[in-house]
Specification:
It is a single chain. The chain has 750 residues and is an alpha+beta fold. The chain is built from 22 helices and 32 strands. Helix content is 34%, strand content 21%. α3 links the parallel β7 and β8. It is globular. It starts with a strand and ends with a strand.
C-alpha cells in the first residue's frame, strides 16, 4: 500500500476519487492500493528548548545549534483522531509515500517536517500538479517525480523557517524587553516590519502633505452632433488670472484649432493573472483584502475551477498553450462572452503569454474545463476576474487611433485627446476595459481621452457651448490599500539607491506571491494597522513601533530583499544553505545588540493596555493567529473558519472582548446558500462558537436559559419561550407571535 499525503481534506478527497480510493475510513480514504490522508496545513512548528521559560535580556541572542519540531497548539480538531497519530500509523504501514501537499515551498516544508518529526524512512515520490482536475491528477500520478528532486526547494523552505524564527523571536524579545513591556508582546519580523514601515511612511507622507489650491479652465463644444470636452494646458495659482481668461474666452465665444495629430497604436493583451495581480485587481474593483482573494482562489482551485493559485508567474508553457482551444470549447452557454469566444475559436490565438523561460514552479492562473455552480458572491467575482483575464490574454491586439487636438482663443491654449477603436481585439471581453490594479487619479480626464472626437482640421473655428473655471488642489500620494501595498511589495527595489538591490529585486520584490497576503494580515493581527474602508491606517501603537524601528536594518527593504534573493538561489541550487544560515546568525546578533542598547521607548508603554486581548475563560492573554485565537494557559480556542467563512481580525477581537460579533455576511449553509449572522462565544463551553442567523433584518435578544422560561425580544416585541426550548429564535413577523425556529447553530469546528 502507498500513502498519498495531501495538504487539505478537500484535496485528499479529489485525489482519492481519481485514484479509486473510494472507501471512506473517516481519517483517510482507502482503495486501489492507496491510502489517501491529509494535513491541516502546517501541523508542526519549530521547537527550541533554550527559548522556553521567562524572557531575559541575558538569554539573548537565542542561537540554537539545531532546531526541533513540535505540534502546533490548537491544531487538534474536536471529535477527530489526532492527525499526527493517523499519519504516523499510515506511514508505518505503507511501503511508499506520494507527496501531494501544495506544489511549492510551503507545501514541501509541510511534508518534510512531518517526515522528519515522525522519523519516517520510507521512499517518497512527488505529485507536482497545477490543477485538481481529474485529467491533471491522472497525468501527475502517471509522471511522479523522485522526491529528492525537490531537496533544494525543501532546503530553501527550511532555511526560510529558521531565518524567520531567528530574526523574529530575537528581534521581538529584544524589542519587547527594551521597551519594558509586561502587558503584551511587541512583534517584529523580517517582512512584517518592512510592511509596517511602508504603511506608516505613506501615512505620514499623506498627512504631512500641504495641499495647494489651483484653478484650470474646462470647456465643452459640439461639432457634427458630437459633444467633446477640452481643457486649458496651464494651471492658475490664484483665481484672478483664471477668471480674466475665462471672461475673455467666453466673450470670444469660439476656439480655433491649431493642430490635429493622429497616431495609430497597437495595444497587446494583458498577461493572465498571477496571485498578486489577481489580488490587486480584486482589491481595486471590489475592495477584497489580499487574504480574502487568496482564500477564494484557493476554494476555486479545490473546486477544480482554476489552476494552482499561489503562483508568481504570468506565463504558460507551450504544452499548456496546446490545451487552450479545448478550454475555449468548454465555455459554452456564456452569452456575455459570445463575441469574444467567436473570435478566439476562429483563431489564431495570441501567443504573448507563452514563454517557457519565464515560468516559475507554476504557470499563470487560468481556468479549467469545469464550469462553476452556486458560487458565493465573492468566489464568483474572483472566478470572473480569472476567466475574463484568461480570455483577454489570447485575444488579438487592440488597434486604435489616438488623436491630440490643440486649440487657442485670446492667447489661451487648450487641448483634448480622443480615441477611435479600429479593432477592439482583447478589449472586446470587458467592453473596452480591463480590471487592472490601476486606481484612476482623474476619472473624468481619463474618460475624455477614451471618447471619439469629431473630424477636425487646423484652422477650424468651433463654438463654445460652455466654459468653467474649476478649482482643485494638489493631492498627496493616497494611503495604501491592499492593492497599492502589494504593488509596493512587488516593486520594493524600485526606489532603492543601491543599484544592486534594485537589480536583485526587479523580478521578486519582498515576500513571495504565496505569502504576501499572510504577511499583511500579521500587522493587522498585531494591532499595528487597521483597515478603514479599503485604506490601511496605522494605529497609535503601530506608529510608535514604526518610529522606534524605522531606522533599524530590520525595517530596510534592502536587507529583506537580499534574503529573498538568497533563498531563491538555494532553491535553484546556486547557494549553499549553510552559507545563508551563517549570515542570518550574524545578523541576529547585530539586531539584538542594537535593540537592547536603545533606551527611549517610554511612549510605547502608555498605549499597550488597549491592545491586550484577554481570554474569556481564564482572563490571561490570548493569542490571535492565522487559523485561530487560543489561550496558552487554559487552551480556550476559537477557530477562524466557521460555516464557510473566515472571520476577520476585527470580528475575532469583538468576539474575544464582547463575546459577540457584529453582523457578519458570507456564511454558507450545508445546502450552499449564503446568509448573514452574529457569532457568539459560549464561555461555559470553552471554544464553542454559535452562529445566530437573522431573518427580515430582525435580531433576537435572548435572556434566561433553556432550563427556565426564556424572554426573547424581537423587533421591539417581547415573547416568553417555554422552558426546554432552544434559546435563540427568529421571525419574519414582529407584530404577531411567531412560529419559533431555532437559529442557534452549534458548529462542528472540523
Amino acid at each position: 500500500m502507498k500513502v498519498i499525503i495531501a495538504e487539505k481534506p478537500s484535496v485528499a478527497r479529489e485525489i482519492a476519487n481519481t485514484v479509486g480510493a473510494t472507501l471512506n475510513r473517516k481519517e483517510w480514504y482507502e482503495g486501489g492500493g492507496y491510502a489517501v490522508t491529509w494535513c491541516y496545513g502546517h501541523l508542526l512548528e519549530l521547537k527550541v528548548e533554550e527559548a522556553e521559560g521567562k524572557w531575559k535580556k541575558e538569554a539573548l541572542p537565542l542561537l540554537p545549534e539545531k532546531f526541533g519540531l513540535q505540534p502546533i497548539p490548537g491544531t487538534q480538531r474536536p471529535g477527530q483522531a489526532p492527525r499526527l497519530d493517523v499519519i504516523r500509523d499510515l506511514f508505518n504501514r505503507c511501503d511508499g509515500i506520494v507527496v501531494a501537499t501544495d506544489a511549492g515551498r510551503e507545501g514541501e516544508l509541510i511534508f518534510r517536517n512531518l517526515y522528519k518529526y515522525l522519523g519516517c524512512t520510507k521512499p517518497f515520490k512527488r505529485l507536482w500538479i497545477s490543477s485538481l482536475t481529474e485529467s491533471a491528477i491522472r497525468e501527475g500520478m502517471g509522471n511522479l517525480r523522485d522526491g529528492h528532486d525537490f531537496d533544494a526547494l525543501a532546503a530553501a523552505a527550511e532555511q526560510r523557517s529558521y531565518a524567520d524564527w531567528l530574526v523574529g523571536i530575537n528581534a521581538t524579545r529584544a524589542f519587547t524587553l527594551a521597551v519594558g513591556s509586561s502587558k503584551m508582546v511587541l512583534s517584529l519580523g523580517r517582512v512584517q516590519t518592512v510592511i509596517l514601515n511602508m504603511i506608516c511612511a505613506r501615512y505620514v507622507e499623506n498627512k504631512n502633505f500641504k495641499s495647494e489650491p489651483f484653478w484650470f479652465l474646462e470647456g465643452e463644444s459640439v461639432k457634427d452632433g458630437l459633444s467633446f470636452k477640452w481643457r486649458g494646458t496651464g494651471r492658475y495659482d490664484s483665481i484672478e488670472p483664471g477668471q480674466r481668461d475665462k471672461n475673455a474666452v467666453s466673450g470670444a465665444g469660439r476656439i480655433t484649432v491649431d493642430s490635429v495629430e493622429t497616431n495609430r497604436t497597437t495595444e497587446a493583451p494583458p498577461l493572465p493573472h498571477d496571485i498578486t495581480s489577481l489580488q490587486k485587481a480584486a482589491n481595486t474593483r471590489y475592495g477584497y483584502t489580499a487574504e480574502e482573494t487568496l482564500n477564494s482562489a484557493q476554494a476555486l482551485y479545490e473546486a477544480k475551477l482554476i489552476t494552482y493559485p499561489r503562483t508568481g508567474s504570468r506565463y504558460i508553457p507551450e504544452d499548456v498553450f496546446k490545451t487552450i482551444p479545448n478550454l475555449l470549447k468548454s465555455l459554452g452557454g456564456m452569452p456575455e462572452y459570445a463575441p469574444a469566444l467567436e473570435v478566439l475559436r476562429k483563431g489564431p490565438l495570441n501567443h504573448r503569454c507563452v514563454n517557457d523561460e519565464k515560468l516559475t514552479d507554476h504557470h499563470a492562473l487560468i481556468i479549467t474545463e469545469n464550469r462553476p455552480k452556486d458560487l458565493s458572491e465573492r468566489d464568483g467575482r474572483i472566478y470572473e476576474l480569472v476567466l475574463t483575464r484568461f480570455l483577454e490574454a489570447f485575444m488579438p491586439v487592440c488597434v486604435a487611433d489616438i488623436t491630440k487636438v490643440t486649440f487657442s482663443a485670446c492667447g489661451v491654449e487648450f487641448s483634448t485627446r480622443g480615441r477611435k477603436d479600429v479593432s477592439l481585439g482583447w478589449r472586446m471581453v470587458n467592453k473596452g476595459g480591463s480590471f487592472d490594479d490601476v486606481e484612476l487619479a482623474d476619472v473624468d480626464q481619463i474618460e475624455m481621452s477614451m471618447r471619439p472626437l469629431p473630424e477636425m482640421k487646423e484652422g477650424d473655428v468651433i463654438d463654445i457651448a460652455s466654459l468653467q473655471l474649476i478649482e482643485d488642489k494638489t493631492k498627496p500620494k493616497p494611503l495604501l490599500t491592499d492593492a497599492r501595498l502589494l504593488s509596493e511589495m512587488e516593486n520594493a527595489g524600485k526606489h532603492s539607491d543601491d543599484k544592486s538591490v534594485a537589480a536583485a529585486l526587479k523580478d521578486i520584490g519582498i515576500g513571495t506571491p504565496a505569502t504576501r497576503a499572510a504577511e499583511i494580515e500579521i500587522v493587522m493581527t498585531r494591532g499595528y494597522v487597521l483597515r478603514i474602508k479599503k485604506k490601511l491606517v496605522p494605529t497609535e501603537l503601530g506608529m510608535l513601533v514604526h518610529n522606534a524601528v524605522r531606522d533599524k536594518s530590520i525595517s530596510s527593504v534592502d536587507m529583506t530583499a537580499k534574503w529573498e534573493t538568497e533563498l531563491g538561489e538555494i532553491e535553484d541550487g546556486r547557494r549553499e544553505a549553510a552559507e545563508f544560515h551563517d549570515g542570518i546568525r550574524s545578523y541576529t546578533k547585530s539586531i539584538v545588540k542594537d535593540f537592547l542598547s536603545c533606551k527611549d521607548f517610554g511612549k510605547i508603554q502608555a498605549v499597550l493596555g488597549d491592545y491586550v486581548l484577554k481570554c474569556p475563560s481564564c482572563g490571561k492573554e490570548i493569542r490571535l493567529g492565522e487559523k485561530s485565537a487560543w489561550c496558552p494557559s487554559c487552551k480556550f480556542t476559537i477557530w477562524r473558519d466557521i460555516a464557510g467563512k473566515k472571520l476577520s481580525d476585527e470580528t475575532m477581537k469583538k468576539l474575544i472582548k464582547n463575546g459577540r460579533s457584529g453582523l457578519v455576511s458570507g456564511f454558507r449553509s450545508k445546502s450552499g446558500k449564503t446568509f448573514s449572522a452574529y457569532v457568539l462565544v459560549d464561555k461555559d463551553s470553552a471554544g464553542t462558537v454559535k452562529v445566530k442567523k437573522t431573518a427580515a433584518g430582525l435580531d433576537a435578544t435572548v435572556t434566561g436559559n433553556a432550563a427556565n422560561p426564556t424572554k426573547v425580544e424581537m423587533g421591539g416585541t417581547q415573547y416568553t419561550v417555554p422552558a426546554g426550548s432552544n434559546t435563540s429564535y427568529t421571525t419574519e413577523a414582529s407584530n404577531a407571535l411567531p412560529t419559533l425556529t431555532s437559529v442557534s447553530v452549534e458548529l462542528d469546528n472540523s
